[in-house]
Q: What sequence folds into this?
């Protein structure tokens, strides 16, 4: 009796003390004003800008080059070359072939033109299974002095580069000029920046994405890239050059997007004896401001343009500082092209410190300066014949329409990528075959390498939190059963985590309760889930859980503010990390702080999120072990298909959410594999039949794999799926029962 009376008096005293305070005991007063969520996103942006700036010095420290001999140098950089190959997805075996195929009909002959000392043919050559390169071959009438792949900018046709179509001044027609000098020249078609075929008319979907972004999106999810596909076309041309023999050396010359391809191709393939990069080379720390189809995972972590130049060394690299292509924002995705500033080009060139490299031009004028062409021929050991200038070739097919060729090239890359998607399930199955289900202990041990893969290769890592959390709080709600506190916790200098803590008023002294972390979705706020008066798809589920006696924390995740947060993903990817790299660090701080609270049971902290919060439920608990269970609501589905397919209206291929694509996720981890990384902890899916995220069939198909894995572990009671007849919303029926059962908290009797 005395103990009960004492406990009651202590509880009353605590309630009186808390009622008199405006902040949570053990925290300092929170004094921030304005939009805290926007301030949090701004802090993350500044953090990423600092990380990008720091990458200039940090990636230099990664280089361990052996310059004792060309052979030793090649061996020392070989691992980096292979990582670059993976980053741009130039990993598929090329199709062997014997010779270039002439493309012509009775009406349209394969020989399309003839110039002084050379002839021009329409050609194609095989590259990958079902993928060809198409363009022009400029063949000298005598033995070639060199063999060159001339790569135009994305909006230049091969005919323009050969002087057969209007649009370029004579000096910019470097394919024609190299042919006049006596070079054998191949000019591939490069996917352009138009949006003519970016969509699927069969299902009534059209987008304003450029063709390059259209391919980039689907390819990126599958560990491929528009850059890698087109580098493969260049290297297939080099395959033919090498097979032909004859002693003539091989070079590449590219401008604009072609300059990018020339740089990457020469970095990957030592058979390329020399490269000219025009209208592209510069400091790349602002690549996140360029069009998204230039987004390369890991580029700034390891390379930058100077790093790519080091992979070409000791072979000659000629950087031509010409006036680069300028392209404004296209469609809904931010990013534009501006001509590389000469100061940036020069600084990056000096940073490379590569032997046998030369810088030509002053940042102005078209590509193909006379001294650039002579420098290329010199390093290729070629003695030029005729001068590079002169009249254009006589055109035998006036009025040629390049659009059908562009359509074929685009359709082939789309079909190749869609096939990768269809086969990816079997690749994932083979990758995960080593997981041991014989016991929970064996499973936990065998799954760890996959967790590390997920951490380092898919989500990516940023530095751990570097400052104490310094918790600040203030009362925001005072309800009959609980008090709500806004809470801010420091993560890094200038970066914080923010959320709302709902604390039941009937907690007894010394009692420790379970916590449910309730995560909002896209453009959401903690108030959306915690405010007891809110009317929305969340149905006040955080407040209702607090009414049931749970301690609840509703974090602010940074997917708010449109491009403000999506651009952070753009900043992160070249550093080999992602938006979720940052979110995971925030949740580490949140859960570590929650574990210190005297009324929290640190072993009973669960995660429950809707929509983008459901996407978070598939990723955050994988890498934040304090989460003892996870509930994915209104998001779980065949995620890889949703990101890549062009045959379903649900696909992110048709939306403005350009940050959704995660590099090479398709071959490594769909949602079933992410759930495997949550196991053996409890995992649940909440799914409304009318939810437009995806059809029930996708959800059920992917979840069946999850259910089987838990059954293999003899833990079928730890996973559930609840279908309900409703839309994209929190249902809060089966999930609430799941939380009570697995967090070991009694359900209310009323």
A:
């Amino acid at each position: 009796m005395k103990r009960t009376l004492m406990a009651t008096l202590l509880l009353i005293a605590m309630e009186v003390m808390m009622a008199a305070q405006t902040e949570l005991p053990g925290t300092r007063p929170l004094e921030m004003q304005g939009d805290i969520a926007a301030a949090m996103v701004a802090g993350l942006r500044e953090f990423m800008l600092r990380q990008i700036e720091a990458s200039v010095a940090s990636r230099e420290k990664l280089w361990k080059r052996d310059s004792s001999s060309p052979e030793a140098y090649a061996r020392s950089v070989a691992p980096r070359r292979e990582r670059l190959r993976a980053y741009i997805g130039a990993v598929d075996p090329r199709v062997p072939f014997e010779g270039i195929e002439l493309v012509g009909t009775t009406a349209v002959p394969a020989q399309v033109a003839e110039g002084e000392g050379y002839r021009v043919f329409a050609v194609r050559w095989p590259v990958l299974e079902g993928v060809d390169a198409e363009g022009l071959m400029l063949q000298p009438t005598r033995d070639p002095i060199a063999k060159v792949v001339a790569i135009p900018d994305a909006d230049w046709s091969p005919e323009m580069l050969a002087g057969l179509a209007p649009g370029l001044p004579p000096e910019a027609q470097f394919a024609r000029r190299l042919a006049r000098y006596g070079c054998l020249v191949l000019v591939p078609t490069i996917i352009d920046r138009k949006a003519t075929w970016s969509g699927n008319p069969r299902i009534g979907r059209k987008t304003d994405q450029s063709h390059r972004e259209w391919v980039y999106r689907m390819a990126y999810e599958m560990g491929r890239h528009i850059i890698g596909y087109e580098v493969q076309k260049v290297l297939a041309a080099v395959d033919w050059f090498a097979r032909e023999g004859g002693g003539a050396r091989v070079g590449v010359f590219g401008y604009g997007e072609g300059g990018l391809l020339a740089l990457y191709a020469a970095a990957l393939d030592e058979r390329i004896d020399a490269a000219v990069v025009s209208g592209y080379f510069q400091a790349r720390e602002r690549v996140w401001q360029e069009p998204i189809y230039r987004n390369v995972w890991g580029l700034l972590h390891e390379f930058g343009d100077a790093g790519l130049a080091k992979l070409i060394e000791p072979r000659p690299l000629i950087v031509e500082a010409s006036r680069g292509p300028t392209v404004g924002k296209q469609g809904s995705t931010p990013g534009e092209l501006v001509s590389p500033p000469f100061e940036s080009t020069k600084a990056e060139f000096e940073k490379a410190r590569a032997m046998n490299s030369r810088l030509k031009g002053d940042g102005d004028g078209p590509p193909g300066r006379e001294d650039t062409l002579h420098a290329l021929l010199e390093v290729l050991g070629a003695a030029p014949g005729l001068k590079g200038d002169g009249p254009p070739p006589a055109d035998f097919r006036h009025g040629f329409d390049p659009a059908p060729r562009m359509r074929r090239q685009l359709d082939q890359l789309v079909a190749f990528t869609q096939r990768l998607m269809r086969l990816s399930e079997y690749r994932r199955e083979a990758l995960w075959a080593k997981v041991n289900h014989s016991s929970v202990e064996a499973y936990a041990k065998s799954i760890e390498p996959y967790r590390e893969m997920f951490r380092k290769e898919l989500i990516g890592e940023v530095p751990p939190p570097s400052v104490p959390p310094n918790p600040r709080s203030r009362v925001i709600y005072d309800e009959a059963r609980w008090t709500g506190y806004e809470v801010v916790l420091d993560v890094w200098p200038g970066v914080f985590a923010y959320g709302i803590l709902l604390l039941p008023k009937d907690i007894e002294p010394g009692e420790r309760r379970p916590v449910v972390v309730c995560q909002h979705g896209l453009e959401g706020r903690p108030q959306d889930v915690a405010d007891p008066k809110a009317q929305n798809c969340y149905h006040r589920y955080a407040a209702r859980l607090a009414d049931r006696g749970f301690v609840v924390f509703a974090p602010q995740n940074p997917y708010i503010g449109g491009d403000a947060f999506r651009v952070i993903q753009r900043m992160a990817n070249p550093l080999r990390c992602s938006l979720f790299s940052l979110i995971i660090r925030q949740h580490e701080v949140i859960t570590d702080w929650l574990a210190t609270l005297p009324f929290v049971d640190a072993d009973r902290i669960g995660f429950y999120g809707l929509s983008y919060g459901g996407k978070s439920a598939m990723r955050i608990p994988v890498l934040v072990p304090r989460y003892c269970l996870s509930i994915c609501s209104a998001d779980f589905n065949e995620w890889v298909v949703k990101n890549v397919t062009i045959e379903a209206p649900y696909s992110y291929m048709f939306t403005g959410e350009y940050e959704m694509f995660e590099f090479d996720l398709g071959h490594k981890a769909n949602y079933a594999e992410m759930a495997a990384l949550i196991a053996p902890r409890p995992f649940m899916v909440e799914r409304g039949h009318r939810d437009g995220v995806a059809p029930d069939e996708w959800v059920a198909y992917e979840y069946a794999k999850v259910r089987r894995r838990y059954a293999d572990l003899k833990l079928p009671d730890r996973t559930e799926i609840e279908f309900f007849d409703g839309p994209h919303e929190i249902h809060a029926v089966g999930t609430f029962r799941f939380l009570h059962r697995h967090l070991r908290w009694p359900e209310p009797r009323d």
The radius of gyration is 30 Å. The chain has a mean pLDDT of 94. The chain is about 40% helix and 20% strand. The first strand starts at residue 28 and ends at 29.
